Amino acid sequence: MSPRGLQPREQADAQPDTTTNRRNDAAGEARILTMPEGAAAPPPLSAEQAGATMRSKRYVVLLAICAVVGVVVSLAAWGFLELIHQIQQEVFTHLPHALGYSHGPPKWWPLPVLALGGVVTGFAIARLPGSGGHIPADGLASGGPPPRPTELTGIMLAAIATIGLGLVLGPEAPLIALGSGLGALALSSSRRDVPSEVVTVVAAAGAFAALSLIFESPLIAAVVLIEATGIGGARLPLVLLPGLMAAGIGSLISVGMGSFTGLSTSAYALGTLQLPVLARPTVAEFGWTIALAIVVAILTRIVMQAGRRTHALVSHRELTLLPVIGLIVAGLAIAFSQAAGKSFQEVLFSGQDQLPGLIAQAGTWSLSALALLIVFKGLAYALCLGSFRGGPTFPALFLGAAGGIMASHLAGFSITPAVAVALGAATVAVLRLPLTGVVIAALLTSKSGLGAEPLVIVGVVVSYLVTLLLSTPRRKPTPATETPAAVSPSEPAVAGGNGDSARAARRPPAALQDCGVETST
């Protein structure tokens, strides 16, 4: 048996094409590679077959292609992140100063800026191919086919307007779209016929490379994408090796470009947080961990549900309603500033840049100010989840950290375990990826010792179970002739795609599940 897609050309040409390329011409719809109706699923790959594939010359060539794609995607992702950072600096720092506001932007400043963000994002969603990318309220965009080049323009424009102008979403989802889209484009421009499985592997490697730039550790990108796509068994190393290579190259490119240009990667790459060292957890901290994880899961569920209802309200009316939502978010930021005596910028943005400062200055925040921050930023986050375009992860991390700082005022619950547990619980409640929640929280708090890690694991498990319990749909009677479709617990995290969430929910958990190595006798 020989691996299909990486086998000799003449043998591959002799095999019937078992996929159909169905294109929906409606705006925002992407190509879907699926098995034809009634076709049998590919047989499982054995470890011996996977090993033979990885020793083949074609797989080595594939690794080389992924390395080149990793370089190109990393440069593009670096430019995207730097552009967003520079836009934020110009709009919220340099422009107000140039207009005579030497002490920072005035209180009303977010109103025109976020309204402009709504106009541009609404135009990208309503008028450009790709519908601006996936809907953040549906989770992380890691499944489905890579976007076409014509769709990337609208996706990037919506992301730049959303994130650069201060809306409450992060860059991870646009980066995944950018990486996978450029990876697929690199192969589609070839004159040779390339198996769809190989295109998927290279697109995944591009996503690895792009996502690695927003964390100081490329391992986080690997864990997020592998868990989100649900790859397992003998297929895992076939996709993991190209992805790890691309992620490593992405980190090297980030460091190298920072040294070459003099621009600091700390402007966009989230590293470890400065927290006191925790040698070992206590019984009291274990009890508070369970309670905190439950509260975080419930509050996150409320926010995500509000985001989905917002999307139902603005769907197909983005061009007119997004500027209004931008004004509402700006109003929330101004109201927080007036009520808490803090900067309105604490409510705006993804929280990626503000998170280290929030932790470092935790002692300067009163309980009332933290509560106001969670309420106002949570409302702004919910509105942006269902209307604008970006990633849902970093605002959840920021709000989780704020909740952890509040919880650290409880008797017997120090700030290190409180923040670590809240980070993990918030991440898993949004993404529904337990291992990702543990890894992100553990790596972000790694300088504080190993004492918090057992509590992080417990908190992530509790938060995940509570999230699943709250998400269980009410059972409806079904006719005896119908069989309910099985739903994967991680489906909400991979419901990404380029627009229609209902279509995304009908997809397999990820396109990568069928990549690389179908077998044939």
SSE blueprint:
Blueprint: E1 2-4, H1 9-14, E2 20-22, E3 32-34, H2 47-55, H3 57-98, H4 110-127, H5 149-164, H6 172-188, H7 196-211, H8 218-229, H9 235-261, H10 283-314, H11 318-340, H12 354-360, H13 367-385, H14 393-407, H15 415-431, H16 434-444, H17 453-471, H18 501-506, E4 518-520
Helix pairs in contact: 3-5, 3-6, 3-7, 3-9, 4-5, 4-11, 5-6, 6-7, 7-8, 7-9, 8-9, 8-16, 10-13, 10-14, 10-15, 10-17, 11-13, 12-14, 13-14, 14-15, 15-16, 15-17, 16-17
Task: Quickly list its features.
Clc chloride channel; two-stranded antiparallel ribbon; two-stranded antiparallel sheet; disordered N terminus; 2% strand; mainly alpha; disordered C terminus; 18 helices
Please provide a written account of the structure.
- This protein has 521 residues and is mostly helical.
- The chain folds into two domains: 57-267, Clc chloride channel; 283-471, Clc chloride channel (Orthogonal Bundle), CATH 1.10.3080.
- Helix content is 60%, strand content 2%.
- The radius of gyration is 23 Å and the shape is globular.
- It starts with a strand and ends with a strand.
- Residues 1-41 and 481-521 have low confidence and may be disordered.
Short note summarizing the structure:
The protein contains 18 helices and 4 strands. The chain is an all-alpha fold.
Distance between the termini: 5 Å
Classify the beta-strand content into a percent band.
under 5%
Would you list the SSEs in sequence order as H and E?
A: EHEEHHHHHHHHHHHHHHHHHE
Name of the top-level CATH class of the largest domain? Mainly Alpha
Q: State the CATH superfamily name of the largest domain.
A: Clc chloride channel
Oligomer type: single chain
